Each structure stands twice: as C-alpha cells, then as structure tokens.
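[SOLVED] Need 3D model of a six-part complex

Original post:
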Amino acid sequence: MSPRTTEQFEEIRESRKKQIMDVALELFSEHGFHQVSINQIAKEAGISKGLMYNYFESKDELIKTIIYKGIDEMLDNLDPDHDGILEHHELINYIHLTFESVRKNQKYWKLYFALMVQPPVMKLIEPHISELKKPLASMMLNYFEKRGYEDPALEMGVFSGLIAGIIQKYVYAPEYFPLEKLEKRIIEIYDK
Amino acid sequence: MSPRTTEQFEEIRESRKKQIMDVALELFSEHGFHQVSINQIAKEAGISKGLMYNYFESKDELIKTIIYKGIDEMLDNLDPDHDGILEHHELINYIHLTFESVRKNQKYWKLYFALMVQPPVMKLIEPHISELKKPLASMMLNYFEKRGYEDPALEMGVFSGLIAGIIQKYVYAPEYFPLEKLEKRIIEIYDK
Amino acid sequence: MSPRTTEQFEEIRESRKKQIMDVALELFSEHGFHQVSINQIAKEAGISKGLMYNYFESKDELIKTIIYKGIDEMLDNLDPDHDGILEHHELINYIHLTFESVRKNQKYWKLYFALMVQPPVMKLIEPHISELKKPLASMMLNYFEKRGYEDPALEMGVFSGLIAGIIQKYVYAPEYFPLEKLEKRIIEIYDK
Amino acid sequence: MSPRTTEQFEEIRESRKKQIMDVALELFSEHGFHQVSINQIAKEAGISKGLMYNYFESKDELIKTIIYKGIDEMLDNLDPDHDGILEHHELINYIHLTFESVRKNQKYWKLYFALMVQPPVMKLIEPHISELKKPLASMMLNYFEKRGYEDPALEMGVFSGLIAGIIQKYVYAPEYFPLEKLEKRIIEIYDK
DNA sequence: GATGAATGAGCTTTCATTCAT
DNA sequence: TATGAATGAAAGCTCATTCAT
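Solution:
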C-alpha cells in the first residue's frame, strides 16, 4: 500500500539493468551486435521493448556500458601494487589473471574481440579504451626495458599480440585451445 | 563491328566482377559489412543496383566470394614444394610470405579479421576455411614434432596465435606495429 | 498535527493544478504541444508522471483546461457593462484590453494561436469557443450596424482579422511589432 | 524490352514527386503535420512506405519542399516589374494576387499558417522564409514612406497583420469569410 | 496521495531484393 | 545487358497511459 522507497526503486533499477546487460551480452556474443535486435533482447529478458529505453538510452549506450564495465573489472583485477612499476612477478601474475578472466568471462571476451574489429563500434569505444590502456602500456615498456630487451616497444607488440591472438582463438574455438597449457607455456616463455 | 565472342563477354564479365569486389572490399574494410549498402557499392563501382545482382546473387555471396578468393590466393602463395612436408626453411618462408601478404593486402586482412569474429559470417564461411586449413595444420604438427617440441599441438596454437594476434593488431593500428621488425623478431624466435 | 480539512486539501489540489498548468503552458508555448512530453512537464513541475494523471486525466484534457481557462479570463476582462450593447467607448476599451492581455499573457496567446490552427485541436476546442464568442459577435454586428457600415458582417471580419493578425505576428516576433504603437494606430482607425 | 531512358526515369520521378506532395499537402492541411504518418501518405498515394524515401530524404524534407515550392510560386506571382520599387497600382495588384492565390490554394495556405506557428517547424523553415521576404519588406517600407505615412514600419505591420489575419480566418472558416468582398474592402482602404 | 517501473502501439527510417521496361 | 523504381519486412526508438506498491 505504501509507496516504494527510493532504495527499493534503486534496487529494481540495478537488478533490471544487470538482467538486461546479461541477456544482451549473451546474445551479442552468440550472434553478433547487429544481428541482435532490441526486440530480441527484450523478449529474452522477459520485458517490453520500451522498458529497455528506461534503462539504456540507446542500443549503442547498452553495448558501451557492457564493454566498459568489463574493462573496468579487468583493469581492477590487473592492477598491481599501484606503484606504477611492473615487477617480474607482477607480469607473470598479469598473464595468469588475464587467462583467468578469459576462462571466467568467455562470452564477454568473445564480444569484446568481435566489437574491437568493427569499425563503427571501434570509433565509439576506442578513445576510452586507449585511455585506460595507457598506464599499463607505459609500465610494460619500462618492464621490457629493465629486462634488457633491445627494442622494448617491439617486445610489447610481440607480447600483446601473442596474448590477444591466443585469447581470440580460444574464445572462438575453446575445444582446440587448451587454455591452461597455453598459459603455462606463455609463462614459461617469459619467465626466464 | 563484328559481334563480340563469348570469350570477350566472359572477359568483360570477369573484369567487372573484380571491380565490384575491389570496391566492396575497400568499403567493407573501411566501414564494416553492415554499414555498407549495396547501393553504395554499386554507386562507387559506377553501375546500377540491379546490375550488381547480375554478378552476385546476394550481398552474402559477394562477401563470401571476396573472402574465398583472398584465402585461395594466400594458400597459393604459401604452398611449399607440395611434398606435404614442411621443412624448416619453408616455415621461415611461410612467416615471411604471410607478413608480405599482410603488407600488400592490408585491407583484405582487416576485413578478414572483422568477419571471422562475426558469428553469422563465421558460420557461413567456416566449413570451407577449416577444410583449406587442414593440410597446413597437419604439416605444422609434423614440423613441430620433428623439431622436438614436447606438445606439438600446443606449439602450433602458440605459433598461430602469435602470428594472428600481431597481424590483427597491425591492420588496425599500422603506425604502432612496425611489421618489418616484428617479422624479423618472430623469425628470430623460431629460427633457432 | 490536526488532520487537514477538506478545504485545505482542495486548496493544495488547486494550487498544484495551477502550477502544472503554468509549467505546461510555458513548455507548450515554447516548443509546441507534440514536442513536450508528460514526463517533461512532470519533471519541470517537480512531481511524478503518475501524479499528473491524478490532476488531469489526459494530455488532451490538460491542454483543453489551459485554453479554456485563458478564454474565460479574457472574456471576463472584456465583458462590458453586461447590457448586451457595445457602445463606442466600449469597443475602444475592448481593443485596449485585448492588447493589454496580449502584453501580459504573451505565452498564452502564442500557444492559443498555435493550437487554433491545429486541425485536431481545433475540433476538440472549437465548439466551446464559438459558443463563447457568439454574444460578442452579435454585439459587434449591432455596433457596426449602428455606426452606419454598409456591411457589418464584413466589417467585423476586417476588424477581427486585423486584431488577430497583429497579435499573432506580435507573439512570434515581439521585437518587430511595437504593440503600444499598433494599439494606438488601430484605435485611431476605429475612433473616428 | 529496351531499358528506360533517362528522360523516362526523370518523368516518372517528377510525376511521383508531385503526386506525393499533393497527397501530403492535402493530408497535412486537413489533419496537421504531426497527425499524419508517412504510412498514411504512402497508402493514400498508393505507394509503399519505402518509396517515399526514394523521393524525399525525410518527413521534414517533404514538408520543407512543399512549403518552399508554395512560397516560390507566390513570390513569382507577386513579383512586380522588378525595378525594386512598389508603385501604388502594384500594391493594389499585390493585394489582389494574394487573395487570388489564397482562393486557388486554400489547402496550401491552411498548411502554411498551421506550420508557421509550430515552433519546431518554424525553426526549420524560418531562415529561408525571412530571406525571401526581405526585398518585399523593403519595397513596402519605401512605399509607405512615399505615401506620406508618419511611421512606415508601423503601417507595414498593420497592413501585413490585416492581410495575414484575414487570410488565416478565411482558410479555417471559408463560409464565414467572403473573400471577394474582403478583398474589395481592403483595396478600398488602401486605395485612397 | 505519490512514485516511477512497465507496457505496447505507433512512429520514422533503412535496405536487400525484385522487376518492368 | 542495364536501369532505378518499387517493395516490404524489420529496425531503433518514443511516449501517453496504467498500475503495483
């Protein structure tokens, strides 16, 4: 009888938002961003099309929110001891955590790679992404420099290409890419 | 004055087809498959929408043709001495030729990666692709086995992930990925 | 502490209604009826969407109420000595009061003119309006007849067209239409 | 069998465009711009919704084209001997031609007045309109100055208000506004 | 009384594809 | 062969209105 409190509304909003994002991630990841209509998402989430727009301003905003949330979560995970310096064991841990994240959020990473190569989506998201990546990149450069590599920038290219390439292959064909073994192998390569 | 022969017609047809495919590749690669309409392609190619359908029976068929042609060309390039055995120098050459192809057909590779991560397109193309890749894969397995790697399948995963990851990063940000140096570095890694 | 009386509730209700109408008038006048959503009005008025429907049963009813209230107020102002006869000085006064009203309620008149030319709104409102205008019209006819005009109906058309035309131009471009001077000029025309 | 020539296509385009504009004018004028959907226009014109967009980029562009065309036609009519000076008989003729145009294109004028008071439409159209009106306005100012009016700008306000007011009342209630008589009366007023 | 979540019909617009000429 | 007019299904999105709390 008595009206809902602000907190109650807040709860409803949060849970609905999460629900929509979960469904959308699932569908986008499975069928591709353009192949999934707002209608489908709404139906799958058991709500009306209109309600979607109560929570997300547009389809673009929805995907942006999903991607950003994923990146933030990952960066949180990967954040070392915040001294801005990447120690050797931190790099090893970085590799481990990355693979861990891929194992746990396979769908997310599939979507992420699919979007990162879509020109219009990339334009939407790239600025924010590269901003987030900057500190990590600079720490890595320092790391490879300290480790005595001749061309640290190049080595970072090899490293990031290797990780990204393997992850991407994995998310599209998990059965052929034994993640645990790959992780061990990569750590082996860099842990010398 | 004399009526054109069948061959002449065929030639015209082929060159027109190629032209359409070139334009389409350019546009798809730049803006993404869904963002480019048949209308745009036709206009850019200087023909009418209707005529497009004289050459390709659908938009899907157009993209399929483009992708298949690219793969065929690449496999032609990479085909070693056809004895089904990959010698060490052939692997090194494979790396070189792959990077060479990427340098020459950057647009194609950009499109290729964009499409390979689109679930519906992958479904369209995948069967053909994996068929084509099979002999290469088996040769590689043999190669890594012969070279004494403990887990040849795993090593192939590392190898293909590394190559694919670097290429993909390159086609989206060529200025940050010095292809020549990367090629040299990778050859260095595997040439020992 | 003591429970509010019915009158107090009624007062609150009335003042809230007025507030909503003021906000709505402002917004409708500025952006047009269809461009303003119930949501906007509610937000601007500091209440919830749902509560809006406690005071007005629909958007149409809201605009109707606003318009009717405006007309009633104006007719109140313009009502002469209630003898049903329009004396010369009363006509002059009518002109003056009309311009006075326009000066004071520019927003209202802007909205009024915008709505009066909207076919569906006109259908909604017209019956009531013409009912209200009837006595005024008949008085005017008598007036122009008495003043010796050959065709009183025609003269009324000229008169009302002139007033309406000027007001309308004024509310849309006040800076170009010096209302005081125009009022004087019109009075001059009819005051001979 | 042989394909259509460019001229044939041109003809089809022109006639279709006109057909759509005619239907749209009719419907907009009768029911209002926002009340008429593209669907309705297409249905009434006996074509598909999609075809509409082959001829007009958007609903806004459609209404703009209709309005501009009408204004251009009218200004063509009203253009005197192009010496930039408005003679007395030209003003009289201007009045006549205006009323003539209203008689012939009642629907157009109804739409015109309905749109000119819609804030969002006005913003769309106003710049072009006021540009078109400038030369006419300056000629009129000169005219009233030459005729010895104390305040030419004011007189122009009265004049344009009178004409606009009468026309607008006429288009919404033709039966009550005898246009011929009104025209004569107005000419009488200014022809002294 | 008061809230805002929820609905659903309806809107404008896009675009691969067909087809008469 | 060649054109572009024509179609129609489906997309993203808006918003007056209802309703559980």
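Edit: The mean pLDDT of chain A is 90.
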